[in-house]
Write a structure and sequence with these properties.
By secondary structure, the protein is α+β, with helices and mostly antiparallel strands. The chain contains 5 helices and 10 strands; from the N terminus they run E-E-H-H-E-E-H-H-E-E-E-E-E-E-H.
């Protein structure tokens, strides 16, 4: 999912105590935002470095290729020059790239396709830049945020940041999709996803790592599922001439 999906998960020992701890700490420290707050600008103009429209064509090793061939998600961390890193997920999808992009760009269908999304609406568009208003909710959490999504057809990418002209309930959020033609299978795609998130209240590093990994898995999973199953909605026409 574009953005981050926070969903209560189960372990062999029952509900994850760490996820529950996250909800209790975060929800207790963040109050509801007044309805008219959304027309105010965000407190800053970005603290996370935005993704650049550069293909994520990372060399995969034999074990990773075998996992993809088995239909599994491969996750990895790419380190940056500062010693940090961002998680990346990649998976093979039994559908052509046009179909995958139609699912990713079908923002108005997100409430039907993406579990925690209650509302998703494009409120402005300028060429390949689409502004979306999103509301998500689940067990003990509810967030509203605004994204600027930029489609880069020549690079086969979609990148996003918060719309800093409007106040969101995330401190910051950036991400990217890269969808390429499968190197070996006709009418298949290989999809890459990465996203980074900053919350308004600090959390222990291991909790944030868990949330980021869960977000990658959830985002890739719904796109794969919706791309491989025919849907009744008319597909979106993408302008590849830009």
């Amino acid at each position: 999912m574009q953005g981050v999906s926070l969903i209560m998960t189960r372990t062999p020992f029952g509900p994850s105590i760490w996820v529950l701890l996250f909800y209790l700490v975060f929800v207790a420290s963040v109050g509801p935002v007044a309805a008219d707050d959304t027309i105010e600008p965000h407190p800053h103009q970005g603290i996370l470095a935005p993704y650049q429209p550069v293909a994520m064509d990372i060399l995969l090793d034999e074990d990773q290729l075998e996992e993809l061939a088995d239909g599994d998600l491969v996750q990895m961390t790419i380190e940056n020059e500062n010693g940090g890193g961002r998680g990346i997920g990649v998976i093979d999808i039994a559908a052509p790239t046009d179909t995958v992009w139609n699912r990713i760009m079908g923002f108005e269908h997100y409430p039907e396709w993406v579990g925690p999304v209650d509302f998703c609406e494009a409120y402005n568009q300028a060429g390949d830049t689409i502004y979306t208003h999103v509301k998500i909710s689940g067990f003990l959490y509810s967030y509203e945020y605004f994204l600027v999504n930029i489609f880069w057809p020549e690079q086969d990418m979609l990148t996003w940041t918060l719309d800093y002209s409007r106040k969101s309930e995330f401190d910051d959020c950036v991400g990217a999709w890269y969808v390429e033609v499968h190197p070996d299978k006709d009418d298949w795609s290989r999809a890459w996803f990465s996203s980074d998130l900053e919350l308004n209240s600090p959390l222990p590093g291991f909790l944030m790592n868990f949330i980021r990994k869960k977000g990658i898995r959830d985002a890739i999973s719904w796109v794969k599922e919706q791309s491989e199953v025919p849907v009744e909605e008319p597909e979106i026409e993408l302008d590849w001439s830009r």
